[in-house]
């Protein structure tokens, strides 16, 4: 404490009216009390004296900071009047009373108490304190005062809590992207940082890349799901990263505004950069650093291996799925696929749609039991065989019989010497007479909406009714009342079910991973799906597929692969336009102009045009800045809804931007898009990131709107 501060505290004591005090003025105090008071004035820690039976409060300037605006009026007053909420509503007052009565000191560690706010009407702030109380005796041994030290420990406990939160979050973080998100989020709290950067080796020769998070950022759940933005590390920071990596020890700049923490995750090096205010590092930070580096290094090592294996599996899985689905004026189709959350093996779920020679659309969704390369391979073979069978004879019963023979032949290919469970076989590498394939196959006529469909052991589809169908008494969502035959490869009858899709109706087909849960009856999953469909707003097949997937897939992780295929009949016909946008700044204006021209051609109302073009501008700007690759911009007009999709091919792990201040820009851009649109979504695939939004529009020559048919 400075001399000026000491004189200030002593001056308060000198001008205080001590006439009502049993001890009198300080110059009349016993020697022991005067010595303790001098100690209080000289100590930089928050210290106070509670004098006499009335607990008259005297304190130094460090303690005054804890009192806030209650200082200086609190000086020389009874403690019970200054902080009644602490004295009367906690155990603190009783500890003080006991020390004064019996002369026993106390140590109170980490107690949560209420600290007076800076405003009289402000709610008290919770804090954690280390408190001590020591008796002060006069010459005759009587307790005449209590020496109190109160050290605020909230920041220390927050750092300890951050280590616990980090361990909990890392336990469910399986990818490198997931681990880095957890590290950035928890490090900001643990180190009281302005921002934190996570640095990993760049795919390029000898460079580093960094993802960064700022204290002021408050990302929405949609933004949290997006992959991190990786930026090339600037030369000055790259030098610091390289230096601390080579030394294997943390680096602290002269004024501690930058702390670099090296990590070793098996064969992968990593560095955490903590950007903070220029203040001395807390002494307890070393323990936090040790805990952080151990937890993160282990999690990052697991994630690197997981990503390598999973990328291969996802690439195989998605390569076997159709890259796009057919569209026509009367019928629009969309699909979503979600791999299993845990594990690194490909699944056997598949879907497809294609035009038949007579103009009808073929629809198929199926599931090969099991996981692994062989399940995915069989899935690809069945899908290819189905196309050949459907082009020859598209009737469901004929296609099913042809695929029975295919499944029999595939099962017979595996030698009897390698049945499942043998020491030479690995899970998913052989079937041994147990190949199990379910499938739903059907056709739909764009002109009439007539659907003919059959099931080979597959869950029955759901029908989402539009306005016309509901006017006839149909519920919003219902499961089709149709017979289910045996799975492919087993003999049996699979009856064809016939229905008519009215304008605004939508068929929702899916694999069993969407509704099945471990330890739960299938009926419960079907009921949950119908509840979701009952609340689906009028929208396109794309947003229905997205909403169903997001609502049905558990937050804690998907237990099985699942796919959703949605087929809708539009009153005005489906319109689509697409362009490829180069990764250049001038591409943003070109994309806006192109979109405005398409919307004019489709006779979209001018106000809706502005909303859509604004959203496109934000998404293309983000793609140009953050992906570093060309992006595909697609416009779809269907059932009075314009859907905009921007898909980039920026792979995880590559530097996407020069300069690391992009996270907040992305957050503001996506928040704007979400605010102006009626539906919004984002998902990542092995090929890159796709962001989409939808806007319900009015057409300048419209006689029928989306609300007339699908609302």
TrEMBL record:
Does Lipid biosynthesis show up as a keyword for this record?
A: no
Which SMART domains does the UniProt entry name for this protein? PP2C_SIG
For this UniProt record, give its keywords in alphabetical order, as a comma-separated list.
Hydrolase
Q: Where is the PPM-type phosphatase domain?
A: 328-569
The record's annotation in InterPro entries points to: Bact_Sigma-Reg, HATPase_C_sf, HATPase_dom, PPM-type-like_dom_sf, PPM-type_phosphatase-like_dom
Q: Does the keyword Hydrolase apply?
A: yes
The identity of this protein, by name, is PPM-type phosphatase domain-containing protein
Write down the species: Pedococcus ginsenosidimutans
């Amino acid at each position: 404490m400075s001399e000026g501060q000491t004189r200030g505290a002593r001056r308060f004591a000198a001008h205080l009216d001590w006439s009502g005090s049993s001890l009198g003025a300080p110059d009349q105090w016993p020697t022991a009390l005067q010595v303790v008071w001098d100690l209080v004035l000289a100590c930089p820690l928050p210290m106070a004296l509670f004098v006499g039976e009335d607990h008259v409060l005297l304190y130094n300037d460090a303690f005054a900071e804890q009192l806030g605006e209650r200082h200086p009026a609190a000086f020389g007053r009874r403690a019970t009047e200054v902080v009644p909420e602490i004295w009367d509503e906690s155990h603190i007052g009783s500890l003080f009373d006991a020390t004064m009565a019996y002369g026993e000191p106390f140590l109170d560690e980490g107690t949560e108490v209420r600290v007076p706010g800076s405003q009289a009407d402000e709610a008290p702030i919770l804090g954690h304190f280390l408190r001590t109380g020591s008796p002060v005796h006069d010459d005759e041994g009587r307790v005449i005062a209590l020496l109190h030290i109160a050290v605020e420990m909230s920041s220390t406990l927050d750092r300890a809590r951050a280590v616990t939160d980090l361990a909990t979050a890392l336990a469910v973080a399986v990818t490198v992207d997931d681990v880095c998100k957890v590290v950035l989020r928890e490090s900001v709290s643990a180190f009281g940082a302005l921002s934190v950067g996570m640095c990993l080796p760049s795919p390029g020769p000898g460079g580093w890349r960094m993802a960064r998070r700022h204290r002021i950022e408050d990302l929405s759940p949609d933004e949290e799901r997006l992959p991190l933005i990786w930026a090339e590390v600037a030369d000055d920071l790259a030098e610091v990263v390289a230096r601390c990596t080579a030394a294997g020890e943390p680096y602290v700049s002269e004024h501690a505004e930058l702390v670099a923490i090296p990590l070793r995750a098996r064969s992968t090096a990593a560095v955490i950069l903590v950007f903070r205010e220029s203040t001395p590092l807390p002494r307890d930070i070393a323990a936090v650093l040790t805990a952080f580096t151990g937890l993160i290094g282990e999690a990052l090592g697991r994630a690197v291996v997981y990503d390598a294996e999973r990328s291969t599996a996802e690439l195989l899985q998605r390569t076997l799925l159709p890259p796009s689905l057919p569209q026509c004026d009367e019928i629009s189709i969309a699909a979503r696929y979600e791999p299993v959350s845990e594990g690194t093996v490909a699944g056997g779920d598949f879907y497809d749609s294609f035009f038949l020679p007579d103009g009808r659309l073929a629809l198929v969704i199926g599931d090969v039991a099991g996981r692994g390369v062989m399940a995915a391979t069989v899935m690809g073979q069945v899908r290819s065989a189905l196309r050949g069978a459907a082009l020859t004879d598209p009737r469901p019963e004929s296609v099913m019989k042809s695929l029975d023979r295919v499944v029999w032949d595939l099962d017979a290919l595996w030698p009897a010497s390698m049945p499942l469970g043998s020491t030479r076989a690995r899970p998913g590498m052989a079937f041994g007479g147990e190949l199990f394939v379910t499938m739903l196959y059907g056709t739909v006529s764009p002109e009439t909406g007539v659907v003919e469909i059959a099931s080979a052991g597959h869950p029955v589809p759901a029908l989402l009714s539009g306005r016309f169908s509901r006017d006839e008494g149909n519920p919003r969502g219902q499961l089709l009342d149709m017979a289910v035959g045996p799975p492919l490869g087993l003999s049996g009858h699979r009856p064809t079910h016939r229905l008519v899709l009215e304008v605004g109706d939508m068929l929702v087909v899916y694999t069993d991973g969407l509704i099945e849960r471990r330890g739960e009856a299938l009926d419960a999953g079907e009921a949950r799906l119908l509840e979701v469909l009952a609340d689906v707003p009028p929208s396109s097949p794309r947003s229905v597929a997205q909403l169903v997937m997001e609502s049905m897939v558990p937050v804690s992780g998907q237990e099985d692969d699942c796919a959703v295929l949605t087929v809708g009949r539009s009153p005005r016909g489906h319109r689509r336009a697409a362009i490829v946008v180069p990764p250049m700044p001038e591409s943003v204006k070109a994309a806006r102009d192109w979109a405005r021209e398409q919307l004019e051609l489709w006779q979209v109302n001018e106000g809706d045009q502005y909303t859509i073009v604004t959203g496109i501008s934000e998404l293309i700007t983000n793609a140009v800045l953050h992906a570093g690759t060309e992006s595909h911009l697609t416009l779809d007009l269907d059932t009075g809804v314009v859907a905009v999709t921007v898909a980039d091919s920026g792979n995880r792990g590559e530097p996407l931007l020069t300069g690391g201040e992009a996270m907040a820009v992305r957050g503001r851009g996506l928040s704007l898009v979400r605010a102006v649109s009626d539906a919004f979504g984002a998902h990542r695939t092995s090929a890159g990131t796709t962001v989409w939004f939808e806007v319900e529009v009015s057409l300048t020559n419209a006689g029928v709107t989306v609300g007339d048919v699908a609302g």
